[in-house]
Amino acid sequence: GENVEQHPSTLSVQEGDSAVIKCTYSDSASNYFPWYKQELGKGPQLIIDIRSNVGEKKDQRIAVTLNKTAKHFSLHITETQPEDSAVYFCAASRGGSYIPTFGRGTSLIVHP
Amino acid sequence: KAGVTQTPRYLIKTRGQQVTLSCSPISGHRSVSWYQQTPGQGLQFLFEYFSETQRNKGNFPGRFSGRQFSNSRSEMNVSTLELGDSALYLCASSLDQSLETQYFGPGTRLLVL
Q: Chain A residue with minimal CA distance to B58?
């Protein structure tokens, strides 16, 4: 089955800095890669996703890049703000009715 | 449109008891998935229902079961609770047969004493 590894487990940055979270996957058939943000006391919320036919996708301060050959994808957050502090999860899926496999999560702490 | 709702939000049980958790998906969504979230194991998939049929199942013992009703609401049941069942149980709904975009509820935090 699919295996997703996520690094780092904890990331501490100063407000205004950039943050990068990396994930690797094992199943070459995976073609859909969502990222979720989980704030304290809440369920994970989808923040951005990318499909295997796209190399990069941006949405304001967040972007995701995908390297299919190396089987890794990354989340980039620029100009971080304290409200970006949360746990971020990556996931990989074959799409369709296949259940996504989640990474272990990264706790991002943005210091004001 | 209302999001995914889960009840109860918090629950305390003792070993050996059983528990039933409820999930109401987003209106119109027909797929409901359940996950167990713990600090040590992350998000672990339990099972997924689509149109009242269990379509996917994770690697959990038979003590964990679920069902989905005709209105797409879902329940999961855990029998003979163990201390290790303490976790946040998350429900996620998807619009149709594709599980790509999942919308999560706030979860039910279960504590087993």
A: A99
